[in-house]
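Hi L.,

You mentioned the student needs an example of a multi-chain input paired with its predicted structure. This one should do, with 756 residues in total across all chains.
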Amino acid sequence: MSKTLIRGAQVLGGDVQDVLIDGETIAEVGTGLSAEGATVIEADGQILLPGLVDLHTHLREPGREDSETVLTGTRAAASGGFTAVFAMANTHPVADTAGVVEQVYRLGKESGYCDVQPIGAVTVGLEGKKLAELGAMHDSAAGVTVFSDDGKCVDDAVIMRRALEYVKAFGGVVAQHAQEPRLTEGAQMNEGVVSAELGLGGWPAVAEESIIARDVLLAEHVGSRVHICHLSTAGSVEIVRWAKSRGIDVTAEVTPHHLLLTDELVRSYNPVYKVNPPLRTEKDVLALREALADGTIDIVATDHAPHPHEDKDCEWAAAAMGMVGLETALSVVQQTMVETGLLDWAGVADRMSFAPARIGRATGHGRPVSAGEPANLTLVDPAYRGVVDPADFASRSRNTPYEGRELPGRVTHTFLRGRATVVDGKLA
Amino acid sequence: MMRHLISAADLTRDDAVQILDTAEEMARVADRPIKKLPTLRGRTICNLFFEDSTRTRISFEAAEKRLSADVINFAAKGSSVSKGESLKDTAQTLEAMGVDAVVIRHGASGAPFRLATSGWIDAPVINAGDGTHQHPTQALLDAFTMRRRLVGRDAGLGQDLAGKRITLVGDVLHSRVARSNVDLLHTLGAEVTLVAPPTLVPVGVETWPCEVSYDLDRVLPKSDAVMMLRVQRERMNAAFFPTEREYSRRYGLDGERMAKMPEHAIVMHPGPMVRGMEITAEVADSDRCTAVEQVANGVSVRMAVLYLLLGGNDSDSAVTHTRTEENK
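Structure written out for the whole complex:
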């Protein structure tokens, strides 16, 4: 097997070290390591992180291969420094059986760019009425541990309670898309000053917060763990903070776009800013950053949601919701969290690798950078500055809100079990 | 003048007064036996209506024809929003046919803005109503009607609505007419009060340049004009208010309430009126109600907008034509 020596990188943003990869594992971490027989990567000034893990990705296959496939999505993931992604269940057909999750799992293995861990649907067809075969999906080759009807809220309190109880048998977690459906009928954007002016249907913060409040209480009652997807409001932060202080087993994620963008952008009526949950206000953005820094929000997850051009090149109301995010996530986190002094690189490693791997039980990922561990690694040049050009994306879709925007940082190398998937910023 | 007319908020005071003054000139054409000016001869205007609105379409069509433009009416009713690409494709088809301006009505807020700013077409875009967002020519015709009634037809030239107290009553939440009027009337110096049940006032209204009241009876004595907004019957089923009768009791305008208004005050309605619920027949048919005048004024105002957007830079202006012909 081949050897690679990463020379002089700041491991987790801390000490400058050499890291020797031998085959699929990290052989040695130290200073002045021998380069004999190894490909050498000079990593002066670069940050070495454990391979990033995304707990919330939409790969669209099966069913919408025109927007993304497992192959193109995992190439995008590798470009963004990810070594594992959790693929959401809202495909066509829905990933609500062992057959579909095994298919996605197998496609991930075949792609070779990034491990794909399928998420199973909570309910049959995401319809919120009948539990899907959660146990069969867990027992399948895909070994599903995370269940979500993402895109739709499990709004029936009884179904949610049963799902939370049921997955305890195999250590699963239910990831909730918190959106009270009646309060968000016809919703197009955050309800507030901007929606009032633009005449677009409002998505009130309380529609998210009321579901989170209910679900943390349900999780407490049945003694299970619940994960809150793409938390987006200051009020949601308060509820999660309270639940954690009470000892409730809740985890939460925030997307990069909710850390950076606000609903003021919707004034352009450009559907590239249309996303669910919607972009909120400056006050929300600052509360989310703070909560990610203090650990109230556990992780960053991309909610990478690819859509073909024609689904965005239209009037706002007709446009699909969602943004691609795998290839810009780390840069946005660097800008909003690291360069603001809220989080150091060790904190980034925690929020984007250790913690998501722990929540999703992704064995082999989110491991320390030390000898004997799987060589899932990401090397970042934090000094880089570049303007986002969607034409450079590996994702099949281009619906990024950052086109033309300068973002810091660049993933120069990604290693999946010792094999380079990205070299010098290009897919290997 | 600007290139497009998308939102009443985009108009400066001077722009708005210029449109109203030009509309007065245009109104003279309607008084003549041959109601036509050659101003837009050889220009093609498309009325692109993705949402039904016979009144607005006919008003624009009359305005276009009085300015001698060639008119194409395109009714793309119904399914357009579900097939998102149709707006872009339709626009590009029209552009390819050499259309000089597009008047668009669309059920989706922001559709005219997208049309004007996405590089899909080059032609000027005039918003004839988009979703619950804006309906700027409606606001202009309302302001025109108010200026005529409250300031005077000739005395009003060059004037705005400074100090006039205007009350808008009804479904503000879903009303593009309310949004447009709040913006324009504020620009013209009027003091605007919105009156509605709290369920029909948008969250975020506190940043609007107007007052909000839930009590119609207290506002009426201080109003120079009271504009009733259309309330759609289906709102009742969505629990915005308990019953039609209760709405009518609290927010409907009947003769008794009208009597609380100052003597000079007018009652306005963008039409079509739901008689009995939001306005009684007694009020609708009184000479204080300007609903019919508003329709006539709509044509003059739309002529002014089309002229200023499309012909305003030509040396032989419509206004010159009007005066020349009158001097003959």
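You could point out the following to them. Chain B has two domains: 4-134+295-313, 136-291. Confidence is low (pLDDT under 50) at residues 313-328 of chain B.

Best wishes,
N.
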